[in-house]
Specification:
- The N and C termini lie far apart (58 Å).
- The chain is of the alpha+beta class.
- The chain has a five-stranded mixed sheet with strand order 5-4-3-6-7. Strands 1-2 form a two-stranded antiparallel sheet.
- It folds into two domains: 90 residues, Winged helix-like DNA-binding domain superfamily/Winged helix DNA-binding domain (Arc Repressor Mutant, subunit A, Orthogonal Bundle); 101 residues, 2-Layer Sandwich (Nonspecific Lipid-transfer Protein, Chain A).
- It has eleven helices and seven strands.
- Helix content is 38%, strand content 17%.
Length: 233
């Protein structure tokens, strides 16, 4: 029958568990609902990574589980593998264009879940997760009139952020020419921005280094207000 032809699945990735529900939300969970899948995609939002880097940034995941999730996301058309040119000649994983379109989903979920009283900000935080949180939590009104380039040196990774027109763009890469550079662990930078820990106090403990425009540094920590917790009055 015609209806059977319309609804018959075509080239559907093989999955062990499925919802068997025609709703788009159900199919989205078929694609990215497995444990760790969405976090793997989050780690690839700012550029390709090697398998070892993904494992390091997702400390709770096993090598076997990471392999399974990458294979599933690749089969679904969300992640692709490629080999870097010499001298690196290493294999990396990167999001497809369609995979990158999931960023608003991750942002909305993060902002929504930040309202939970059970959210624990002291748990491990990757550099990419921190950068994504800035893109999510940045308040356009507070950024009004600000035009700045801010660098971040977090472990072996560097990121350059551009704030202009009330918008934030951030990319992994060189930070030369930045107006301001934060150097330190992701959790420490998050403590200054989201936890209200004074920059001077973190510098005194040698936990954070801030180079460049000090006034900009202080203003930067005020640009990302957290939403109120559920039940807060």
């Amino acid at each position: 029958m015609a209806l059977e032809n319309i609804t018959k699945p075509r080239d559907r990735p093989s999955r062990r568990r499925r919802y068997d529900d025609a709703c788009g939300t159900a199919h989205a969970l078929d694609l990215i609902g497995e444990r760790w899948a969405l976090l793997v995609m989050r780690e690839l939002m700012l550029g390709p990574k090697r398998f070892s880097a993904l494992r390091a940034d997702l400390p709770g995941i096993s090598a076997n589980t990471l392999t399974q999730r990458l294979e599933g996301l690749e089969a679904a058309g969300l992640v692709a593998r490629r080999k870097l040119p010499p001298p690196a000649s290493a294999r990396v994983y990167e999001l497809t264009q369609w995979g990158h379109e999931a960023e608003p989903i991750i942002q909305t979920m993060g902002k929504w879940a930040a309202r939970s009283p059970g959210h624990d900000p002291t748990l491990p935080l990757s550099a990419t997760s921190l950068m994504m949180s800035f893109r999510t939590m940045g308040d356009p009104a507070r950024m009004q009139g600000l035009d700045a380039r801010i660098g971040f040196a977090i472990g072996e990774e560097t990121f350059l952020m551009r704030i202009a027109g009330g918008r934030i763009e951030v990319a992994r890469g060189p930070i030369a020419g930045a107006d301001l550079v934060f150097t330190g662990p992701a959790a420490i930078i998050a403590g200054a921005v989201y936890g209200g820990v004074p920059i001077d106090a973190l510098e005194a403990e040698n936990a954070l280094a801030v180079d460049g425009d000090r006034i900009l540094a202080e203003r930067f920590t005020t640009l990302f207000p957290l939403p109120p917790k559920v039940g807060a009055t």
